[in-house]
Design goal:
By secondary structure, the chain is mainly alpha-helical. It has one domain. Helix content is 86%, strand content 0%. It has 7 helices and no strands.
Length: 200
Amino acid sequence: MNYISDILYWISTGLLVPVIVLLIILFGRSLLLIGSFFGQYLAIRKTDSLLRREFDSLTLDTLPELDSRLPKKNTSLVITYIHRILAAKDSPAHVQRLLADFEIAADKDLAISKTLTKMGPMLGLMGTLIPMGPALVGLSTGDIASMAYNMQVAFATTVVGLFSSAIGFITQQVKQRWYLQDMTNLEFLSELLNENRKAA
């Protein structure tokens, strides 16, 4: 039994370095996510005001002019898909495929936020529990310096994991609202195109 316990102890302590490395990577990725999220926020605000103005006044009569009123060089995901849907307006099957492609592209953009949200707490918890074993051993042998070091590692990994998770959670929630609004606009455009085909 002691042999099995020793194997588990070696495995768990051997995982400490990979866990710390992964937490550092997650922390760096969360910082990059904050920067890209801020840039995306500024672009979304500009695009959202434009689309809100256009779609509020959009009717079957003004539908043919929509493509020319939207900027061609805009790199926004929703603008790109609006142009594609308008180009495929005569084929309902292609329009539905483009709507599905937009959902996939949106989910791909959310992947980093979802990863941070889920992996941050898991790695943080592992980084907390692994050093607790050596810390308890240090406490039992009277090695206070070893115990203090291991406790420091345990608390640091928890904080880094929770920080990365918080960044992922916040960006995921906000981006989901953005893409839900974009999906609503695309579905509205699809319905208008259906009405236009029936009227013709």
